[in-house]
Write a structure and sequence with these properties.
Elements (H helix, E strand, L loop, with lengths): L4 E2 L10 H4 L12 E2 L9 E7 L5 E7 L18 E7 L2 H16 L6 H14 L5 E7 L2 H15 L11 E4 L10 E4 L11 H6 L1 H13 L8 H5 L9 H11 L2 H19 L6 E4 L3 H8 L5 H13 L1
Helix pairs in contact: 2-4, 6-9, 9-11, 10-11
Length: 308
């Protein structure tokens, strides 16, 4: 409940037919699912603890409706981290890489997220320094390996291509270049879109909750249940669910709400674009990002357009 995730059920390959029935209030997940709030009531969970000798306890938990869901989950663990190194020249980057490699070889075991944060803070102090190296690492072992493989490139001695998770820039010539956002359109939506991000970032979690609240009663079931459907336990499950989802006009409405959450997240991260472009249903998303239409008008337009 705290992490806003319904975990997958392990060890089930062939559930009973009554569970697979579309009308069943019970279902099983084969992958983690964002636990969204029902528009009619708080999120609730039953917890059972079974002990030896018949000592069993059962609890019903209910979320506090005044709980703050506008902040990121406490201490999220990411599958990878971005580390940024800055210097006046390549030699300074080489020195930083050698120093960090030495620390790791001597037994230093910082959390990767803390190490990444410290490199970001240090780079802010040297933001005008022209030499830059960026590494995306999965863990400390991967980071040490990446630093080691980056050194020959920093020294311009490498005879192999730079690894895809490493970038090295010598100057600030690209500083004046601007970023452009492109919003995808019809056909880009699919089931389980952004499931992990929705569980982590409140901007997306709130957007999905808003979608369920505003569209309540318009569809056979909550919009999020089409986006994150129960498992079918059949072959080609993902393809079947995606085909059914894309054939429905409300899948486009789900895409619009997901894009609205992404826009909120982009703004929270303070990512700014000089220009935006949208393809097909992405056009109204780009208009909204640019401030030309309200979110309400954007969603209403998508709903009316997709009914034709």
């Amino acid at each position: 409940m705290h992490h806003r995730v319904i975990p997958p059920q392990m060890g089930v390959d062939d559930p009973q037919d009554m569970i697979l029935d579309d009308t069943s209030p019970v279902y099983l997940n084969q992958q983690a699912k964002p636990w969204l709030r029902n528009p009619d009531h708080p999120r609730r969970a039953g917890v059972s603890a079974f002990g030896f000798g018949g000592t069993n306890f059962h609890l019903v938990l209910e979320e506090a409706l005044d709980e703050d869901h506008n902040t990121e989950k406490d201490d999220p663990v990411w599958s990878s981290e971005l580390l940024l190194f800055k210097g006046e020249n390549r030699q300074e980057l080489i020195d930083q890489a050698n120093s960090l490699i030495s620390d790791l070889e001597n037994g230093a075991e910082p959390r990767l997220c803390d190490l990444a944060y410290s490199t970001i803070l240090r780079s802010h102090e040297q933001k005008e320094s022209p030499a830059t190296m960026v590494i995306v690492a999965k863990d400390l072992k991967h980071l040490k390996q990446s630093l080691t493989r980056a050194l020959p490139h920093l020294k311009k001695e490498a005879t192999w291509p730079l690894d895809n998770n490493i970038r090295i820039i010598d100057s600030l010539e690209a500083k004046g270049q601007q970023v452009s956002f492109m919003f995808p359109g019809q056909g880009s939506q699919h089931t389980w879109q952004g499931a992990e991000m929705t569980s982590i970032f409140p901007e997306l979690w709130n957007a999905c909750n808003e979608a369920d609240r505003i569209t309540k009663g318009k569809y056979p079931k909550a919009l999020s249940e089409f986006l994150y459907p129960p498992s079918l336990f059949v072959e080609d499950e993902e393809k079947i669910q995606n085909d059914l989802f894309k054939l429905s006009w409300y899948s486009s409405v789900a895409l619009a709400y997901f894009q609205s959450g992404m826009i909120d997240l982009i703004r929270t991260l303070d990512l700014q674009a000089l220009s935006v472009v949208g393809h097909s249903l992405g056009e109204p998303a780009s208009f909204h990002y640019a401030g030309h239409i309200s979110r309400e008008d954007w969603i209403a337009y998508v709903e009316k357009r997709m009914k034709f």
